[in-house]
UniProtKB/TrEMBL annotation:
Bias (Low complexity): 311-329
Protein name as catalogued: Bacteriophage T7 tail fibre protein-like N-terminal domain-containing protein
Species this chain originates from: marine sediment metagenome
InterPro entries, sorted: Phage_T7_tail_fibre-like_N (IPR005604)
Pfam families in the record: Phage_T7_tail
Transmembrane segments: none
Chain residue ranges for the region called Disordered: 304-329
Bacteriophage T7 tail fibre protein-like N-terminal domain span: 4-112
Amino acid sequence: MADTSVVYTGNNSTTNYSVPFPYILNTHVKVYVNATLRYTPLDYVWLSASTIQFVTAPAQDAAIKIQRVTPGDSRLVDFTTGAVLSEADLDMSANQNFYLAQEAKEGFADLMNAELLRIAGALGIVETDPDAILAAMVQTSLDDEAAELAQRVNDIDANGEGLLNDAIMLALLGAANVGYTAFILDTTKVKIDSDGGDTFATRLTALALADSDNVALVTTEAGVRLSADNALEAHYGVSLNVNGYVTGFTQLNDGTSGDFTILADKFSIVHPHVEWAATTAYTLGQTRHPTTPDGNVYECTTAGTSGGSEPTWDTTPGNTTNDNTVVWT
């Protein structure tokens, strides 16, 4: 129990409350209800040196605090030379100092406890007893340190495992040369799993054999082609423009003469008409060919404006193609 104060809880019926601590004068005793100072005789009266009575019973769960506040701004006893010393005067002077010391001690303890509660609340500690708060704070600190230590151990384990795996991997792949300027691959250990687990050396040997075979085939093909080219008297090609139309012939070798045969059902002569364009006005009689040549030329038989996208051209002779307000035949 505190030496300088006492706390009660109101119940809406009790009016008399005990004052269990000593004091010099009852004016040094302060009464608070819900942290509000109460006055005598307006709010309460003294029934005896150790009991007060409220005029109205404090409300249910009201916080009642009765506290001694000894004045320290002046001495209660002033000794003078030649005066008679009495026990009462000596006790009052000593009690003033003693009570002030008690109140300072408990005030400091209350201040420290309030600060502990504030810190505990910030840390999420629900304890209210000062000793329990300190124990919880120490335990929280120990838990945090233990968790950090465990995490660092896990990190060290993970790093060590990674380094060990890297060392094993490098040992399987090969080793550095003497000057550490290059890495020498161990082709007898490195395997190509996607190709059935063959070692890299086996695969390189197979590639070398295949390359030799291909070189022989290419050499043979080149000889056959040279013989065929030499048998040609003349070798011609067809020159095309950007629209895919034939613009002429070109001689590809130095043959002295040659025949150029045209299949009538495969070859057509097309006038280089202008290419069709979107959203363009066309008049009767104008001709256009598709942007992708199909060998046909289409004549505007109904004047108008072409659509925003190229129509599907009807390639049957005499049929029409509708293009927005234009009709092509």
